[in-house]
Fold:
Amino acid sequence: MAFAPGCTVTFVAAEPGPVLDDRGTLSLAATASYADLPDPDVVIVPGGPGTGDALSDPDLVGWIARAHEHTRWTTSVCSGSFLLGKAGLLGGRRATSHWAILDQLAKFGAQPVSERVVTDGRIVTAAGVSSGIDMALALLARAFDETTAQAVQLVIEYDPQPPFDAGSPKTAPAGLAERALSLL
Structure:
């Protein structure tokens, strides 16, 4: 969304400053605190291995719930949908997440859907990490128009041509899902 005209991306955290990934190897700088950005237009909640710890962060979960009151869209990628659920946003809604944990969304009252991108009102969820690009392009088309979304797709050279047809448990060779789960 950063390439779209008029869009500003702000990385928020409890406090501005460096935020380490779950392995302590990558640092991103949060430029605002939750209090600094009470009413964002769009929220994108990432997922990944750190989601378990994030689910027990009342400041983060509370900010997501409060921010949603003002958003045009509240979105997630991968297990970020669990944070939307914890914030009380998924009750009765269709939502997706990574295939390995998709069925667990029901614990939050969601209707788990095995699709790359699921839109249910102002809530938009994307499955695994690569489907976050699909979600971003779909939102750009809705926010602006298809030409803008296509221009951004071209800028980022998003032209998927995977070398294997193994990106989904539905198409992966037999036994590969178990091996993939062992990597998680």
